[in-house]
Amino acid sequence: MIAPVLGIELNYWQETLLRSLGILAVVLLPAGTFVYLFLFKMVSFMQSRLGPMEAGPFGSMQLLAEVGKFLQKEDIVPERADAKLFKLAPYLVVSTVLLVYLAVPFGPQMTFVTNFNGGIFYVLAVSSISALGVLLAGWSSANKYSLIGGLRAAGQLIAYELPMVLAVIGVVIQAGTMNMSGIVAAQANGSIFGFDGLGNPYFFTQIIGFGIFLIAVQAELGQTPFDMPIAESELVTGYITEYSGMRFLLFFIGEFASAGAFAAVAATLFMGGWAVPSAWADLDSAWFNLLGPLIMLGKMMLIGGLIFFVRFTFPRFREDQLQKLAWTVLIPISLFNILLTTILKVAF
After folding, report:
1. If DSSP codes are grouped into helix, strand and coil, which group holds residue 62?
2. What gap in Å lies between CA 229 and CA 308, rounded to an integer?
3. Fewer CB atoms inside 10 Å of the end CB: C or N, the chain?
């Protein structure tokens, strides 16, 4: 991937280093953008206030100030905690985000790992690893509130992974491939009733799957109205109650980096990813290795804005309402969407 983009020959260690730096940039830049635009500014405007304004122009350096604050705090491990697992949990959560980004294409040659055929299967598989990190954090803290939060989070993640997977199946059926780059190409080269000026973004034909996917993402992220695992009024921030300093910062980064990762996956599956309709430009051009990430970032911002608008608008579900929505509403609708997609695929 790196050599075709740069137009130079690189040694293996040089290419590995550039891949690692690229992954870090892909993880941290959207996460930082989400924090500033949505957490600091959008919610402030929704509540008729300015938000942070002191650190940098319009508060643009506030995130760096927050990071500096957490790095200076003491890293405390509770006396009765399982120290090894307690320290491991936040790194496990953050590493899940890195694994998800590995298979997301950002341009014609901008895939960070081999462009393999089971890309979407891989993404959905590794995204579930975060449940282990959350459960470890809750159990190893030796705190009853943390344990309850970890158990709630694990039950919630398991319940909403199934609707997420079923929502993606409709896209796989329509595209005829699980390759992430293939799904992007199918949307860019497709047409709607013979008109190819817009391609065929699955946002239109898979609108049911798109809605289910975003609801499941909201639950996977533990964001309102699905924030039962960290309900402040009940569990004192749940599974992260005992964390401080750098490890608390990792959970904070992991939350917004995960939002960016799921937004990237949603943009790839339902909005054409890094590509524009093939009628607009030659998508094999090397220029799209530069334009593709910018196009993808714009689509991620749209989806991220929707995710955080819901977070700051709706009240919290009760635990029984949360589970009932997944098992009695979302799963039957997603199965109906698969059936409808299959019929239309065969018929047309």
Report:
1. helix
2. 18
3. C
